[in-house]
Design goal:
Blueprint lengths: L2 H16 L10 E5 L2 H4 L12 H8 L16 H15 L3 E5 L2 H4 L10 H16 L3 E7 L5 H4 L9 H16 L5 E6 L1 H7 L15 H28 L2 E13 L5 H20 L7 H13 L12 H7 L6 E13 L14 H4 L1 E4 L17 H14 L4 E5 L12 H19 L4 E7 L18 E3 L8 E3 L1 H12 L12
Parallel strand pairs: 1-2, 1-9, 2-3, 3-4, 4-5, 5-6, 6-8, 8-9
Antiparallel strand pairs: 6-7, 10-11
The protein binds 1-deoxynojirimycin.
Length: 496
């Protein structure tokens, strides 16, 4: 901690010590999240199939920082008991994790179900339930079986049925015990990031592939949701949705209002409007915008493939709640004539002719894309309620990225506190936010950033063969929050 950090922290503590405790309603649940490829390791344990991340990082080892990969990661394939223990230490009510499709179905298809894969998740689910922790299970968190990637992956329309077949296996195996499901994690990440050389399958196809993928993820989600409704819901009474990445955008000047709305439609609308809007289908303005662009570029068909009327109906309304991944906020402005536009990390900027900026009053986190503006979360929750009329929102991810390993991660604590405060305000405004799942339980493989950055409540020693996990101050803070059901514990932790 620098001298300045200490001063800021002391001010923060005194402010918080004097504030009154705000208690979350009893139905509000606290959790933490992880994802299979980021933590499990055991990449070729037993009969597990190869995932597209295995393939990418084994064949192009320089793609991720420091040549890292998830071959061992946090070794949760062996250390899952310790993971459960950490959930207990944190006082969690929810633990969100994902199932590795190729671990369960080595060929990608349900012709063979791996016994070891099946048992691994059975043990994890049973272990959590024994401790009174509810599993929240993601079916797909970026790790497609390579066998399916070889067949075109998310660009092949048949994937919607392949995904539904996989979903049926998972619901059949675990549906009696798992009551909250997320079909896909961040389809934006799957398509916009994966087809822009920032994630597996590491393709450079932002014009066509990313939009085929966009449509197919919507259909895949919808098929899995409908299948649960018809075959499993009557017996198991669970809820199904997906996790949608949402960065909140605000216009830099009143002049930028329209382009900001378009930006929200481009980023979030393409993955939310087909499912959550009353009318379904693509957000009309962005569809028009992309159709015009495609014509100008000489394409004979829309690059964002049109939905048939039947498909619109298939996808529309396929949710039981809104699963929200929220991290940060950006200001949007129109690019000046001839201005160079960065396409990373805010994909789509070039297409829209926009520049994304940080407001000077928003403190930056440890990386330059991470502005801390918790009010953005509150605004976004309102926007979701106003735009789609959603009746329930579960925060499926929210977390703070750090570049050092410091165990005194007070900025993360402040980030959690401030975001919870905004959630509390939203609840007071009548928005039904039913839970907060922190990203992430422990440091893990952060995709192309490898192990260079961390989001964990627990630090993991990746040079230790035992992958020892150590609680950070944020873990102590969060365990006070979950037990006291209030965020006003910032004075606790550092001095305990
Ligand atoms: C979104 C993704 O779901 C997760 O896999 C990733 O690690 C976090 N955000 C942080 O970037």
């Amino acid at each position: 901690m620098s001298y300045l950090d200490v001063i800021v922290f002391c001010i923060l503590i005194s402010a918080k010590c004097c504030s009154q405790d705000v208690v979350f309603p009893s139905w509000f649940k606290f959790g933490a999240a992880s994802a299979a490829y980021q933590i499990e390791g055991g990449w070729n344990a037993s009969d597990k199939g190869e995932s597209m991340w295995d393939k990418l990082l084994h064949t192009q080892p320089r793609v991720a920082a420091d040549g890292a990969n998830g071959d061992v990661a946090c070794d949760s394939y062996h250390l899952w008991r310790r993971d459960i223990e950490m959930c207990v230490e944190l006082g969690l009510e929810l633990y969100r994790f994902s199932i590795s499709w190729p671990r369960l179905l080595p060929s990608g298809f349900p012709n063979h179900i791996s016994e070891d894969g099946k048992n691994y998740y059975n043990n994890l689910i049973n272990g959590l339930l024994e401790k009174g922790i509810e599993p929240v299970v993601t079916l797909y968190h970026f790790d497609l079986p390579q066998s399916l990637q070889d067949l075109g992956g998310w660009a092949n329309p048949l994937i919607a049925d392949w995904f539904a077949d996989y979903a049926r296996v998972v619901f059949t195996l675990y549906g009696d015990r798992v009551k909250t499901w997320l079909t896909l994690n961040e389809p934006f990440g799957i398509c916009d990031v994966g087809y822009n050389l920032q994630q597996a399958p590491y393709l450079n196809d932002t014009e066509v592939g990313r939009y085929l993928c966009n449509k197919n993820t919507m259909l895949a989600h919808a098929k899995a949701w409908r299948l649960y409704q018809e075959e499993f819901k009557p017996r198991y009474h669970g809820k199904v949705s997906l996790s949608t990445l949402f960065i909140w955008y605000e216009p830099l000047t009143p002049d930028d209002k329209e382009v900001t709305e378009l930006t929200i439609e481009h980023w979030e609308g393409r993955y939310a409007h087909p499912i959550f809007s009353k009318e379904g289908g693509w957000p009309p303005r962005i569809q028009q915008f992309l159709d015009n662009a495609a014509k100008k570029e000489g394409y004979h068909r829309p690059r964002l493939p049109t939905f048939t009327a039947e498909e619109i109906e298939l996808v529309r309304g396929t949710y039981d709640f809104y699963g929200l991944n929220h991290y940060t906020t950006r200001k949007v402005r129109k690019a000046k004539f001839g201005e160079e536009i960065e396409s990373w990390p805010f994909y789509g900027s070039k297409e829209l002719g926009i520049v994304l900026e940080n407001d000077r009053s928003w403190p930056l986190g440890s990386v330059d894309w991470f502005a801390m503006y918790p009010e953005g979360l509150w605004k976004q929750l309102h926007w979701l309620k106003d735009t789609y009329g959603v009746q329930e929102i579960l925060i499926t991810e929210n977390g703070y990225v750090n570049v050092d390993d410091d165990l005194n991660d007070w900025k993360r604590m402040k980030y959690i506190r401030d975001n919870l405060e905004q959630i509390q305000y939203a609840i007071e405004d009548g928005i039904n936010v039913t839970g907060y799942i922190h990203w992430t339980l422990m440091d893990n493989f952060e995709w192309l950033a490898g192990y260079k950055v961390n989001f964990g409540l627990y630090a993991v020693n990746f040079t230790d063969p035992e992958r020892k996990r150590t609680p950070r101050e944020s873990a102590r803070y969060y365990s006070k929050v979950t037990r006291g059901r209030s965020y006003d514990y910032l004075h606790v932790g550092l001095y305990e």
